[in-house]
Amino acid sequence: MRVAVVGAGAGGAAAVAELTLSGHEVALWNRSTRTLAPFIERGGVEYEGVLGEGFAKPALITPDIAQAMRGAEVALVCLPTISHVAVARLLAEAGAHTTPVVLNPGHTGGALEFREAYRVASGGPVPPIAEFHTLSYIARKYQPARVTVSGKGKFLRLGTLPGGAAATAAARTLFPASHPVPDVLNSSLANLNMVLHAPGAILGAAWVEATRGDFTFYVQGMTPGVTRVLKALDAERLAVARAFGHELPHLGAEMQMYGTVEASVKDTSDLVVAISGGKANQRIKAPDSLQHRYYLEDFGHGLVPFLALAAAARVPVPTAESLLELGITLTGTDFRARGRTAQTMGIAGLDRESLLRLVRG
Predict the structure, then answer these.
(1) Contact, 82 vs 304, CB < 8 A?
(2) Nearest 5°: CA angle at 183, between 137 and 177?
(3) Could you report the per-residue pLDDT of 187-208, keeping only the tens digit for each?
């Protein structure tokens, strides 16, 4: 399959490595020529970790989105969710109205926001759109042209908007771990990063500022007090999902399905043991500042859209509300104004029934 990998961060670089290894023809795009330069100079992507160790050479590396999309059978968007609106506009300008789009990941409300941004930019047609609930890799770029992949998703929830069958088919071809779910509310409400990152980012903020993140977020930062807040936020997530007709596993069980909690763990409700014992996440450092994506992404594009979905479902979520207010004060960023809102998702004013009709057709 001819794949346009949109984004040259750790997720995009990991996708280039795996999909090239699998025999797909890959074009790598990124808007920043500075990010692309090391890959261009090297001629491809160096990789290490669970994919093995080697070098992947894509068919094309380019900052020109139209060139990357030429002949592509799918656009695999591997970017932080804060970039989805900009990418949707760029793809609309490139006229990619029929090329399936797979958001890897969509996180909370990604497919809805992407669809709305594309619709506004194109003034008409919207491509088939699907989303994964989380990134298909645990990956970091410790060197500019090299990606370290410490984990790979074993279970990826794949939510699809009405008319997105081609995106579903492409995602399942590229990622055998894909499991289609009834709608994008199911995939959106399985966004575990919001639950994993927001409490630790708030409760560990002093340590983040004092050490510039020189501690392991999922081990040293995963204390009993932090996990009590995690459980409270997770209970709210499950309640909102239930209001839309979805019975989702609790945080530890979902992480075990994905692969970041070891299969040997019997009690996945003991989050201190379950999370800190996960090999894929053990070495990952905490945010190095209050401008890290654990704040900018997981508050503005995690908690904010979650609150919009909770409002539509009429489910109270006091822990999520409190964490968002603390995040706004802590960082000095108005996430309610700059985040993924009901308006940017195209669901402003919708109640539970009308939102279900929108996502199910």
Answers:
(1) no
(2) 30
(3) 999 999 999 999 999 999 999 9
End-to-end CA gap in the chain: 28
Write down all domains in the chain, each with its CATH number in brackets. Answer: 2-188 (3.40.50.720), 192-360 (1.10.1040.10)
Q: What is the CA radius of gyration of the chain?
A: 19
**Are residues 314 and 354 in contact, defined by beta-carbon separation less than 8 angstroms?**
no
Tokens coding 45:
């992507």
Inter-axis angle of helices 224-243 and 318-331, nearest 10:
120
216, two tokens: 């392991």
Q: In sequence order, what are the residues at sequence separation of 6 or more whose Cβ sits closer than 8 angstroms to the Cβ of residue 153? A: 132, 134, 135, 136, 137, 175, 177, 258, 259
* Cross-strand pairs, 27: 4, 60
The type of residue at 136 is S
DSSP string over 111-162: HHHHHHHHHHHHSS----EEEESS-SEEEEEEETTEEEEEEE-S-EEEEE-T
Percentage of the residues of the chain whose pLDDT score is greater than 70: 100
Q: Which of 24, 84, 133, 197 is catalytic?
A: 197
Using one digit for the tens of pLDDT, what is the confidence trace for 149-198?
Answer: 999 999 999 999 999 999 999 999 999 999 999 999 999 999 999 999 99
Q: 64 catalytic, yes or no?
A: no
Of 107, 234, 246, 298, which one is the catalytic site residue?
298
107 and 191 in contact (C-beta within 8 Å)?
A: yes
pLDDT digits (tens, 9 = 90+) for 127-137: 999 999 999 99
CA distance linking residue 295 with residue 272, whole number of Å:
22
267 is catalytic: no
User: pLDDT value at position 280?
Assistant: 85
Distances (CA, A) of 183 to 21, 60, 163, 255: 31, 34, 12, 20
